[in-house]
Amino acid sequence: MAEVATGDAILHNVGGVVAWSRVSRPAEESARPYDAEEWTLAGRALHVETTLLDVPIAYTDIPRDLRSSGFSSPFTQAGGVKQGYLFEVPSGAEQWFFQALGTPQPSVEAAAIGRSGEGVIGPEIQSGPDRWRYTLVRGEQIQLRKALLGGQEEATCQFCGRLLPVRLLVAAHLKRRSLASKKERHQQSVVARACLLGCDALYEHGYISVSPAGTIIAGPRPMRDQGNGAAALASVVGRPFGGFTDDNAQYFAWHRRHHRAALRETS
Q1: Rg for the chain (alpha carbons), in Å?
Q2: Same domain, 41 and 146
Q3: Do residues 18 and 76 share a domain?
Q4: What is the pTM assigned to this prediction?
Q5: In this structure, how many other beta carbons lie within 10 angstroms of the beta carbon of residue 159?
Q6: Could you tell me if 85 and 1 are in contact, meaning their C-beta atoms sit under 8 angstroms apart?
Q7: Domain, as residue range, for 42
Q8: Are 158 and 59 in the same domain?
Q9: What is the C-alpha to C-alpha distance for residues 98 and 112, in angstroms, rounded to an integer?
Q10: CA-CA distance, 65 to 118, in Å (whole number)?
């Protein structure tokens, strides 16, 4: 409790992750607020801002390689959950949890990148304590990701076709979620497996799209970079999209129209 700092994220597990909280201020000495013989009267109170999840995350949905054990880990050697009070999330699991919640992993507002005498050239960056930033939780995202990936440890990116660990794949919205209707947000056809090695960003920013025939094409946004960016684009253009259907064709059509309109507004 004493090591928890303002801005830290806490996941709440009751038969599965049912909520997450942001710490609003550090723990402070406090008397127990309720009667319980197994706890002493004096202790610490931690002030948090909590968001309940529409759909809990079952621990079996968490990839097995992220459920690493250890003294401070919430997981057992068998991959189950320990009975306990406060544990550290295993290193490397943070990104998966924020993807499962459907919200970008919070970025650190500022951090010193070097100290004098440590071989770093340039002035020291001054900052306060690291702080997390959050957005709202997408309640349906967990179920959509589960429908796409199930309990698999590996799956293919539907754009580039590479077989990858599921931690390198996201449930990418084919139609921007903020512009989709409530009904569309809950359709499995509105999402696809896209890899974090490039395809997710290429599609999101309009560098690639999918034609009415189901082939990956250069998107409305031109790739002006003639180096690695152009090579990344060329590696997927011309491939068939894995899992093209009449249901997701409407979202690809929306994607093409949306990015063409966005380019016209900025030109």
Answers
A1: 22
A2: no
A3: yes
A4: 0.55
A5: 24
A6: no
A7: 9-93
A8: no
A9: 24
A10: 34
